[in-house]
Amino acid sequence: MSLVESAHFLCRCLSPSDVLHLSMTSRCWNQRLRDQDCWLEVDLRFEQHPGAIWKHLIASGYVKFTKSINFQFCAINNADLQSLPSSLTTINLNGCREIDDAVLMCISDVCPDVERIELYWNVRITNMGIQAIAESCNKLTYVNLSGCKNLTDSSLRALSSHCLQIHHLDCTRCERVTDAGVEVVAKSLTRLTYLNFYACSQLGDPTTIAVGTHLKLLKLFDLCGGRYLTDAGVQQLAEGCVRLESLNLTWCVNLRDASLEALGRCCRELRALSLHGIQGFTDTGLQALRRGCPQLEALDVVGCSGLTNNSPEYLTSLFPKLQTFKIHS
Q1: Which one of 68, 151, 215, 233 has the largest count of C-beta atoms within 10 Å of its C-beta?
Q2: Which string of DSSP letters, residue by residue, matches 53-89?
Q3: What residues contact residue 98 under an 8 Å CB cut-off, 6+ apart?
Q4: CA-wise closest residue to 105 among 156, 124, 51, 45
Q5: Are the beta carbons of 137 and 116 closer than 8 angstroms?
Q6: What is the pTM of this model?
């Protein structure tokens, strides 16, 4: 193994702080560890002082060509991320609750090639930061906004206007978005295969009608807690999104057998379905689902008191491929 190959191997096995220490042991290692392939991915999740290490990497010039950085659940702040390489395509800031729009402004200024950004539970981020990202980073394909509770339809409109390649959008617990915002998303982001509005109880039929009308490639849809959703909305969703493989309707309490009949007619590729907590379903609806969805591997009917039998043994007799009986927790 050559020294260059050894350097690449060590960068994959050691933490960034350990690699930095190795670079200080000799001029030879310092040179070898400057090879751009050593730093294509930088993972600082398990570092004790991730901000200080990142600043050192920036100052030393090691990360000029880095493609991916991962700060998930790191204790970092705006000052730690004032400098970023323009080469970045993937940025994970999940759970970095001390950062705000200033970091997103920095990303928008210097990282035009970002394709994936994860911002789970970044509670200080606002529409202004998302708009800046959307306007500058139009190569985005994967966006995680889960738990960003300050965001409204303005963020959805910005992404829909500028980032037409998005195929994965997670808006879990974004309680200030409305059906109107989702309609804009559905009309513009037609490449979506993953769309998550878990715990967005404010959404209802207009959301599923728009999704069913425009998002023909959708494979996963989550509207857990959609208290305004009715059978009419599910019917439109089922008829339009025939490629669905995973659907979460947990606690959509207004649904009845007509929803299961629609899914059975249209969504033959369904593999995971959560109906947790919906009391309006009966055995008639379950039989309609059985006839149309033979591929089901996961089915949650916990709390569906309208069913006479929801034991694993009985469900397996209806759906032979079932392996999972609880999805919602």
Answers
A1: 233
A2: HHHHHHHHTTTTT--EEE-TT----GGGGS---TT--
A3: 75, 76, 77, 78, 124
A4: 124
A5: no
A6: 0.96
